[in-house]
Amino acid sequence: MSEPTNEPGQRTGRRWNQGLRGVLWVCGVALAIHVIPLFLPRNMPEQELAIARATENVEGRLRFLVPLKHNDKATAADLRTAAELLREGAPAEAHDLALEAERRDPNALETQLLLARICDRERMTRCVEQSLGKAQKLAPTDPRAELLRADLSEEKGDIEGATEALSRAYSRAPGDPLVGVRYGRLLSRMGRPEDALKVFTSLEGKVPAARLLVEQGLVLTKEGRSREAVRLLQQAVQKDPKLAEGHFQLGIAWFQLGNEDAAEEALRQADRLDISDTRALATLCTLQVKAGRLEGARQTRTDLERRFPQRMDAIREQCRLP
Q1: Is residue 105 part of a domain?
Q2: Are 113 and 60 within one domain?
């Protein structure tokens, strides 16, 4: 009797079955990882929070998070996390959880900051002010309450209020580069260039020199002092030739001076240094249109559309051809 032979079709079928079993096994393990926690006794806040994070809709999250208010094992940090997960979709329930966090730890600055954000979401102005006031009393030297006040003011279009809040934050943390840079930018936006430049000067040694020169150049560009801006921005890219933002701002400053060729060279260098950012070529396209270089603008926009086909509508909005 002849021995059975392994036909190619049989071998292929066995491999296919083995592959299918492997896929099903992986899917089964993944399903178990997600489903098993639902059947475990959930008396630990960490479990409820983990499930809530994996739940996309707010209604599903409420089921797991609201009971934490009455869970003795939940810490103030747990309750803040739960409130943060509900802040956008269910601010009233988030508010209750944050108040319980405050009850369990009255001295936590983070709770007051969270309450202020939730109250702002609920459009409860008095509650926002009360929470920020408590935050300032809890940590008089901490700038975060004033930074949040600046955020909320800026979102409402109150640039003057935001600037005042940032002034107080800067006085509490004069050496903080993030606070200082933001404050300087807002001063420039408010039409106070000399004050902005003083703030940036105070940050020397705390912010990379090239980055600081770019910030100073931006102030001068906004004020129409393009020749001074070009000088500073050239220094910036000399100090850090790979600083894309430096080349980008230099291109804009050169265009303001009427040097279109230098502007294009700087913007193309910015694009080469950061090919994921559309700003450099989109700005070049806009400047080419302004200068009447329509053929160059069409080519620049075509290059952008080819590189970023998924952003074609935005690109055409950024660079409108006549």
Answers
A1: yes
A2: yes
* Lowest-confidence region among 11-20, 172-181, 200-209: 11-20
224 exposure class (CB count in 10 Å sphere: 0-12, 13-18, 19+)? exposed
The percent of the chain in helix, strand and coil, each rounded to the nearest 5, is 75, 0, 25
d(CA 244, CA 224): 22
What's the rounded Cα separation, in Å, for the pair 277 and 89? 32
Please give the share of the chain, as a percent, with pLDDT higher than 90.
80
User: Is residue 181 very low, low, confident or very high in pLDDT (cuts 50, 70, 90)?
Assistant: very high
Assign 315 a pLDDT band (cuts: 50, 70, 90).
Answer: confident
Residue 244: give its domain's CATH number.
Answer: 1.25.40.10
Structure token digits, residue 63 = 């089921």
Q: What pLDDT is stored for residue 174 in this prediction?
A: 86
Q: Which domain holds residue 318?
A: 279-322
pTM above 0.90, yes or no: no
CA atoms within 13 A on the CB side of 92: 0
Return all residues near 79 (Cβ < 8 A) that are at least 6 apart: 68, 69, 97, 98, 100, 101, 104
**The total number of structural domains that make up the chain:** 3
